[in-house]
Write a structure and sequence with these properties.
Oligomer: heterodimer
Number of helices of chain B: 0
Number of strands of chain A: 12
Helix content of chain B: under 10%
Order of helices and strands of chain B: EEEEEEEEEEE
Number of helices of chain A: 0
Strand content of chain A: over 45%
Shape of chain B: globular
Distance between the termini of chain A: 39 Å
Largest sheet of chain A: 6 strands, mixed
Largest interface: A-B, 23 and 25 residues
Distance between the termini of chain B: 36 Å
Strand content of chain B: over 45%
Chain lengths: 116, 115
């Protein structure tokens, strides 16, 4: 069963605009963590932001924020003031609450293109 | 900190040959993960270790794949014999125990091409 769903294979945004990348997840465990990673064309995986299931506030890291809607099981990434360097693949991941500590399940990814 | 180190960065080999990928995790991290990334299947966890012990190898595709972690600073992923369908980018990642983030720090990956 697909536990992490990213429904947008590709997105584009105008430079300096904000963009939201969607992520929904499926778990019955009350304790879990959600991550976003960025993969530029060079191939490395870069950690962006983390949201714990018990966190009361939405996580923010600079221009990145996570719109966490627990009841809807969504954890959308919001990038404000997009820059050309934001063009990359973005992966949502969930820390698997069972079957092993610290195991991550990744979504299929969304390719973001930032246009000047 | 040097980050997670992987070698080689690129590997081209012929079908049937043995391939060994290497990984040095971040010092002090007690979890090590091997992933494979392909266009068709995305990012898949192959195996992970905790304190050098394999914990979950359910993602290892076949007996042709094996992984070892002889000490806290070194791990290998071996494919023997290799096949063209093994062509992918293989990532190693490491993490430290603790409830909060435990984000995984990824290495640069090894791009494997099996001809």
């Amino acid at each position: 069963a697909q536990k992490i769903t990213q429904t947008q294979p590709g997105m584009f945004v105008q430079e300096k605009e904000a963009v939201t990348l969607d992520c929904t997840y499926d778990t019955s465990d009350p304790s879990y963590g959600l991550f976003w990673y960025k993969q530029p064309s060079s191939g490395e995986m870069i950690f962006l932001i983390y949201q714990g299931s018990y966190d009361q506030q939405n996580a923010t890291e600079g221009r990145y924020s996570l719109n966490f809607q627990k009841a809807r099981k969504s954890a959308n990434l919001v990038i404000s003031a997009s820059q050309l360097g934001d063009s990359a693949m973005y992966f949502c991941a969930m820390r698997e609450p069972s079957g092993g500590y610290n195991k991550l399940i990744f979504g299929a990814g969304t390719r973001l293109a930032v246009h000047p | 900190d040097a980050g997670v180190i992987q070698s080689p960065r690129h590997e081209v080999t012929e079908m049937g040959q043995e391939v060994t990928l290497r990984c040095k995790p971040i010092s002090g991290h007690d979890y090590l993960f091997w992933y494979r990334q392909t266009m068709m299947r995305g990012l898949e966890l192959l195996i992970y270790f905790n304190n050098n012990v394999p914990i979950d190898d359910s993602g290892m595709p076949e007996d042709r794949f094996s992984a070892k972690m002889p000490n806290a600073s070194f791990s290998t992923l071996k494919i023997q014999p290799s096949e063209p369908r093994d062509s992918a980018v293989y990532f190693c990642a490491s993490s430290s125990q603790g409830w909060a983030y435990n984000e995984q720090f990824f290495g640069p990956g090894t791009r494997l091409t099996v001809l």
